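for the record, two folds in this file. i put them one after another cuz i was lazy. first one right below, seq on top, structure tokens after. the second one comes after a little note so u can tell where it starts
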Amino acid sequence: MSTIPSITLNNGSRIPQLGFGVWQVSDDGAEAAVRTAIEAGYRSIDTAAIYENEAGTGRAVATAGVPREELYVTTKLWNSGTLDWSGAQGQDAVLRAFDDSLAKLGLDYVDLYLIHWPRPMHGTFGNVWKAFEKLAADGRAKAVGVSNFGTAQLDALRQESDLVPVLNQVELHPHFPQTELRAYHAEHGIATEAWSPLGQGKELLAEPALVKIAEKHGRTVAQVVLRWHLQSGVIAIPKSVTPSRIKENLDVAGFELDAEDMAAIAGSETGERLGPDPQGFDWN
């Protein structure tokens, strides 16, 4: 089983640098995939309320035969247009949403709870973050962070609270490496976590420069890209429902990308997102 390094977050806790995501997986599919992932050696599992597979994820965690303290479970608050963020009502709504996620997962706590989407056109997150502060203080969320936030939202949180998010989960892959945002994170002690670390579809994995590097190391392109994430200090959460690929994505130890490889991968940047720009997109 491949040994995966971990990263120390700003609250002193540690997170495996390679995890397993279940976005766009059905509830039953998530149960099967997460069980396979844990059996393969993954110890970090990432789900979200909006994925509608927290129950299946929780069933897999409960039956995996691995002690709960050895698993790192992340879920996310879905900040829909129907959720009232104002004052104490907003805080209560967040706590109810968290309770619902925890019940579906069948857990006493989660290791990480994230605000899933910034929706900047609806103001700041001061009241929401107060609820996150309470969850962290109570220990029901061992760590709290954000997802898809830009520097403006991160600056706003820093002005409203002394509790700095432990990480920001964002779209990140060689075509869209988020260099400036990663520099901001490093400056403020925020870890960077990548969703869609392998891109989507076959375009990234067919990149000629990456294919050449994979052939050089006797590895798959997916393994090369995940190795790039690890060597870049980024936490990655690849997703697959295919058992062979679940295992393949975990097998990224035992080889090292050299400076020439890293430069070639940097040269594949296109600046193009796969998903919408969080600064201008309003989920309902």
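(here's the note) second protein begins now
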Amino acid sequence: MSNTIYIGYDFKVEPLQPATEILIAELGAAGFESFVEHQEGVTAYIQKDDWTAFVLEDVYILNSDEFKITYEFSEIEQTNWNAEWEKSFKPIVVDDLVTVRAPFHEKPNTLYDIIIEPKMSFGTGHHETTHMMIQHIIRNDFKDKSVLDMGCGTGVLAILAEKVGASQLDAIDIDNWCYLNSLENVERNNCEYISVYQGDVGLLQGKHYDMVIANINRNILLADIPNYAKCLNANGVLFLSGFYQEDLDIIVEKCSEYKLMLKDKIQRNSWVAAKFKI
């Protein structure tokens, strides 16, 4: 990847929240691969091969009257990406129990210590959806459970699920970079029970789990809920995030078609992480 050329967009956002969250979500859907938040907004990166002059055409928040968003962009050669992360990636602590940090951070005193080399993948814990899914995992019983982490990103949720007692885990992501990054992070955290795969819901054929974790986005969740329901064991639990509070009703309605009932939810700013049970 050392010769990969990226286009970097520096966005200045007023007010910062929730506009920055929404902007990152929309940019992710448009093909941007990585985001570094800063005091004035966010810098977003997309591979030059994936870039077109119309890449921001469907990013609706840029045309919103509620927020003032300006940007400039330039071509960047990826020569020292990890150094950029070292400058911007700070450790996070969730409920005083879980720390998500990079290898260059000091070892914490929390019960669970997860080391993530984020690179270009999502799932450092900084985004609201990952933070809330971490909360769900530490608040529920994963001991000796079989677990699917769908859209695993960095693998952080699967890694935590093993640390809290899960005994058999599959981590799946359609993106090759995420697949490779998850493999690295699984090894880095000395996990023994996580298998990492590159692919989509087609890999779930014949698979069954006690717990399914899916932190993706609304449209993919709506399309894939039938597959998640099919692979859940009796009394199985489904955790979903990657959508806004305003989308919860449609998610609940879709889940109810497959006898998955809403049991709990966590909200952080405008984002939601929901727990469903058969």
